[in-house]
Amino acid sequence: MSAPSRQGPTQAHNFLQSLNPAQLQAVQHDPNIPLQILAGPGSGKTKVLTSRIAHLIIHHLLPPSSICAVTFTKKTANEMRERLTKLIGKERTSQVRMGTFHALCALYLRKHALHVGIKGNFTICDTEEGKKIISSLLKERKDYMVSNDIEIQPGNLQSKISKFKARGLSAEDVLTMTPAVHPNEHNTVLVLDRLIAELYSGYQGKLKKNNSLDFDDLLVVGLKLFSGHRKAVSWCRHILVDEFQDTNFTQYELMRAIGVARRVTIVGDPDQSIYGWRAAEVANLEKMQRHFPGTEQIFLEQNYRSTGSILKLSLAIVSQDKNRIPKTLLSSHPSGITPVLRQCNNESHEASFIAMEIKRVMAHMGGALRWGDFAVLLRFNALSRAIESALQKEGIPHRILGGHRFFERLEIKDILAYLQLVDNSSFGPAFTRAVNVPSRGIGEKTLGELFTGADAMVITPLELVERICDAKVPDIKPAVKRKLSPFVAAIRCLREETNKGVLPSALIRKLLKLIDYQEHLHKTQPEWETRWENVQELITFASDVQGSMLTDVHLPPGEEAEYTPLRLFLQASMLSSEGDEQNEEGNLNKVSISTCHAAKGLEWPVVIIPAAEEGTFPFHRSEDIAEERRLLYVACTRAKGLLYLLNVAERKIAGNLMERSLSYFVSHVIKEDETVLTLDDLCTFPKGERTTLCQVLERPEPPEEEVRMRVEGFYESARNRRPFGHEFDAEAASITRAMQQHSFGPARHEIEAKFIPVSQIDVKPDIKPTVHPLRPFSSGVSVGPDVKPRIKQDPDIMSAAFLHRPKPLSNSNVEIKPYIVSISDVKTSGSRLDATRPLAVASSSRDVKSSQARTSKRSSRSYSLSHKAKLDPDILDLSLSSPPPPLKAKQPIKPKPMIIDLTEPAPKRVNPRTTIKREVATPSVVKIEGAEAGTAVEREPSMIILDPPTSIRHKGPSKVTVEPGRLPVAPAPKESSPGTPQTPSLNPGVKRRLGMGRIVGGYANKKFKLPT
């Protein structure tokens, strides 16, 4: 002990000097007095825990093996172990008993199995195998359930049983609580309660028969061990528990049983209690003060993760709960960029916005952010479908946290089934799986006979098939023996290798050769190469476990004898969450999609929370509104620098399109303080905000030239293709405004566009009408500074084609573009996107009708009332136009002079912070005079003249007047002259089929005769 004490003051000074006053007080707190550290998100609780352990060892001279540190996840345990190694060295760190409650109980149960009536080689039954056992029990009771009109889903019953165990109720307890039901009983509630109790008892009987424990049993039986056999925990002189607010009854009692010396330190945050649905009890914080008198509390309120504006919003949300423990959070960073509240039309629009906003933010940050810096946090997994599709469409790499767990994959479970049988021949689920891998023609009927025969002989199914292959069972068909022989040979070979001490990685390689598993995958799985790579990854995992076999929870020398390498490997496999992200390096640079629950304890620079709506936050099936509010709080506090809350006007729920309203949690915050959120406006990342964000993330600021190149590349890409899944999208307008005012663009200026009736445009006869690749149904022309086609449907919606940076108007080089009637007045101010909406119009009636169908249901961007934005009734409709006339021979055409006069003041700016309601802008008065009125601007001889009109309707008068609030409409056509080309007439007895096109040269139409 003398050596540590001599080095103690120096080492203590090195890590204590980096703590803030509250953290230092928690670390140096008297170990003999129970302590509650109430730590908010991002307050450095992991740092405090590891520093306190180091302080107990260095200053108070506690042996490392006498300290127990219990974490909520294996990831946190690994992080603490790495930090502690830097403070006290690898040797002493390896002696600290550190891990999850499940890992701690599993290891000590193997050592002291006989004290609790189990075998040391028990198998941990995972969720999937447990559900199969329950399914078999329900199948046995099917007739009884049908006669009593009862239906039970295996997953629901499994959850019910899990809650029983979390509350400390055994199967015997539940049977005692539910009286026996009379055969003629018609009370469905009583029948159901008794049935659940009997199924619970049957489930536990099956587990015992298979010599297995499920995850909840590890805690229940572990509590029985630690409570009834004090020797099992006599080594503990101080216990530290992380995420204490999420502990259930059984876990709390485990803490009491291990911390019998009253030397207890817990870390928790009641504002982050989000597992009530899993029987977690936030009241355990109060219970501890009763069971451990004199408990003291220390608050950690300095946040080192999020910007001030993110914390302001988060606290405003959680503070709506008047029953919470009053506490605050102080950010160590500047206020930063205000969180954005964005309303979308529907879930597809929402998903498209997420994909494009990720790309836009990455471009404006000039390489300072990567894909892995973004997270999309969902209330439930079903919301991910449209988002995954949008990310995939945009080529954005992404991963699903908690989605496809490594050890739940088919190929991994196949290999583990063989190894589980080698270690525990009683485990029936492993036998059922392995006996037919590769396929040996053992059907359900044969399997049933094997299990029935084994029960009759009071042996395991594996023992029975071994006897069959040894010809010790009479009356067995030779075909059955022939099928089972390769399986038995493989098991016996692996068993011999295990007895020799062969490590798990070598056992797996041996097994792959014995059953030719690669060929089996090739024959049965279309994506067999990927599955084979996963098998290789399992070998890597086995090698890693071999190198640190007892690091989950340290056992002193002499206690490891009960643990074979195979047994510990199987235990590590079952207790690993998501395979501990086996290929973590490959996942670092992918956008994360996660539920809010799974995101607990994680953080990202940019967080996007879709579906911030009633019915989602709070969830419509949740009974605890306060916990739902805390869940949204947890999701918001995962963000470091940027936070988005999204909601939609309508969303499909169970196949039905339903209107949605903003979550009360959010709308209430807006009413209380309008400054906590920015409504719709997106940040354009001027240099100041970009610098601040880089400082928050502790990353170097990218060079200006790099940012310029990436931003221009993003907008160039946006110009060349439709980035969204809908023809009319508000995001096109947003990106346009961002493009017009990002820090590298030209000076801000007004843009004028002048409408010219098509009838006044002289067209070169050799130029054929063309179709714009994005908007083939547009009509009309525009004169302006490189104005591109776009469609106007409502003030917030326009096509993605309007993605071209405007240039100052030049009278000396006017260019006439076809296919658009456009009026726009763009003004920008500040660092946020301006709410001014460019105006544009032109489409055929077909597209107008389809857009009306879309926009008629779309609510405006108003969070105080529902307002429907309607189409202007005077949108130019050319659907009845005749087909284009045949082109004449090329001949010189003399340009006609014309007058173009356009005045359009800037639309009124609406401040969303002053009023949440949005106003719909309307176009100003536009007067256009034809050529006969004089000449104000003459076209240069070098001007470009494109595309003739597609309809003779445009051959009307050249004077058009547009009143306020109305859009230009072409005049009614005159009677055609004898020289005007006519539309090809149809035979009265011929009718065109709908959708078959016009009858023109080069386009054959199907015809049918009308009945005579």
Automatic annotation (TrEMBL):
Which GO CC annotations does the UniProt entry carry?
A: nucleus
Q: Which Gene3D superfamilies match?
A: 1.10.10.160, P-loop containing nucleotide triphosphate hydrolases, PCRA, domain 4
Looking up PANTHER family in the UniProt record yields: ATP-DEPENDENT DNA HELICASE SRS2, UVRD / RECB / PCRA DNA HELICASE FAMILY MEMBER
Report the coiled-coil segments.
none
What is the official name of this protein in its record?
DNA 3'-5' helicase
Example of a GO biological process term = recombinational repair
List of residues binding ATP: 39-46
